[in-house]
Write a structure and sequence with these properties.
The protein is α/β, with parallel strands linked by helices and about 400 residues long. It has three domains: about 60 residues, Orthogonal Bundle (Arc Repressor Mutant, subunit A), CATH 1.10.10; about 140 residues, 2-Layer Sandwich (Nucleotidyltransferase, domain 5), CATH 3.30.420.40; about 160 residues, ATPase, nucleotide binding domain (Nucleotidyltransferase, domain 5, 2-Layer Sandwich). It has twelve helices and 16 strands. Strand 12 and strand 13 form a beta hairpin. Helix 6 packs across helix 12. The longest helix is centred in the C-terminal third of the chain and has 25 residues.
Length: about 400
């Protein structure tokens, strides 16, 4: 496997601490002045110096070129060395592993996917480890021109500092997959198995929680202190950020956002709920509805093509899905009291054919004097899921990561 840093201690400081907030602000907004950091964190100059010193010593932060401060004295804004470490992130589904390697700001540098031959834990570990190795080898080969030799005087490839993995289901302590319906897993020590195979510090997280973390740290809604995330794909996911914290409860990972009643005349989901969010929005449900309407089997991509072409039977299904999505967004905005929502997921091609219906329903379900809801649409599909997993590894590492030469 690629070069790695030592494993993180089991008691990694919470990213909710002031130290964690400092790391997040510099990663997200750097270069950022010390005055602005002090204002946002309510810290004195002395406290800010004390908190930032370990990050500077470990090579995570750097000082940018001096700028003229408000008092007339030169100041040196803080920034992150985003190219000094890399992280791997992977999303595991029931069918495949989707992986990325990113920089310190979770910007994807390379991505790839592999089909899973079965759901055996050893098989999944092996496929995931091999995929990460291949991605890093590809990146390193591109950096040295494919020669395998480092140019004298040039820095070598940044080390792979951690691995984040997300799954659809419940995860305990960032280590154990307690329930993963798509994989048929219960009580699997997934992080331990991956660390044995890769020698990388590994964080495992619920997929929607991981994606929401990435949006909080690096996404377009990062300046909104509170916002929601809705995912559409094989299922329907819901994440919530309140006061810059991802909301996690004992029920996180049960997919409760997938069973919100939206259309009393809609189809039933597998659990028997009529017109719930899964029945109306999950790609398998949409495919099943169109298959019944046309009397022949279709794929999800074909559904989207036929809807775009205006086939009436298909448009009826996708418009109903759009109205259901708009209603779900309205419920979230009204009940969670947020006015920013990020839409993501591998099935978000639906937005291209049903977005107008969704917006109309959202507006109809809001008070006319309510703050307009800002929607951020991320249609990068599985790359977004894998990037979310990488973000959890970055979040875990920022407190302890020591870069080479620091």
């Amino acid at each position: 496997m690629p070069r790695s840093t030592p494993a993180l201690p089991a008691t990694t400081p919470s990213p909710g601490t002031t130290s964690g907030e400092l790391a997040r602000l510099v990663l997200v907004h750097g270069p950022i002045s010390r005055a602005e950091l002090g204002r946002r964190l309510d810290l004195s100059p002395a406290s800010l110096t004390r908190l930032s010193k370990p990050f500077l010593e470990r090579g995570l932060f750097v000082e940018s070129a001096a700028e003229q401060g408000a008092t007339g004295r030169p100041t040196r804004p803080l920034d992150a060395r985003v190219d000094a470490a890399r992280f791997a992130g992977a999303k595991v589904t029931g069918d495949a592993v989707f992986a990325v390697v990113t920089d310190l700001r979770a910007t994807p540098l390379a991505s790839a996917q592999r089909t899973l031959p079965d759901h055996d834990v050893g098989t999944v570990v092996r496929v995931l480890a091999d995929l990460v190795t291949e991605l890093v080898a590809t990146l390193d080969g591109a950096q040295d021109g494919g020669t395998g030799r480092q140019t004298r005087g040039e820095p070598g490839p940044a080390p792979l500092a951690g691995l984040g993995v997300s799954v659809g289901g419940k995860v305990e302590g960032g280590r154990v997959v307690t329930r993963a319906p798509f994989l048929g897993w219960r009580a699997v020590p997934f992080a331990d198995r991956l660390e044995q195979a890769t020698s990388l510090p590994t964080t495992v997280e619920n997929d929607v929680t991981a994606l929401t973390t990435a949006e909080l740290w690096f996404g377009p809604a990062r300046d909104a202190r509170s916002f929601a995330v809705v995912t559409v794909g094989a299922g329907v996911g819901y994440g919530l950020v309140v006061d810059d914290r991802v909301v996690v409860t004992p029920d996180t990972g049960l997919g409760l956002g997938g069973h919100v009643p939206l259309d009393p005349g809609g189809p039933r989901c597998l659990d028997g709920h009529v017109g719930c969010s899964s029945a109306m929005l999950a790609s398998p449900s949409i495919v099943a509805s169109v298959t019944r309407a046309l009397g022949r089997a279709v794929t999800y991509d074909e559904v989207l093509r036929l809807a775009a072409a205006g086939v009436p039977e298909v448009v009826a299904v996708t418009d109903a899905a759009g109205r259901a999505l708009g209603r779900l967004l309205g419920y979230i905005a009204n009940l969670a009291l947020v006015d920013t929502i990020v839409l993501s997921g591998e099935g978000l091609g639906l937005w291209d054919v049903a977005g107008r219906a969704a917006r109309a329903q959202l507006e109809a379900d809001r008070d006319p004097e309510a703050t307009p809801v800002t929607l951020h649409v991320d249609d990068s599909g599985f790359v977004a899921w894998a990037r979310g997993a990488a973000a959890t590894a970055i979040q875990s590492a920022v407190h302890t990561l020591r870069l080479p030469g620091a």
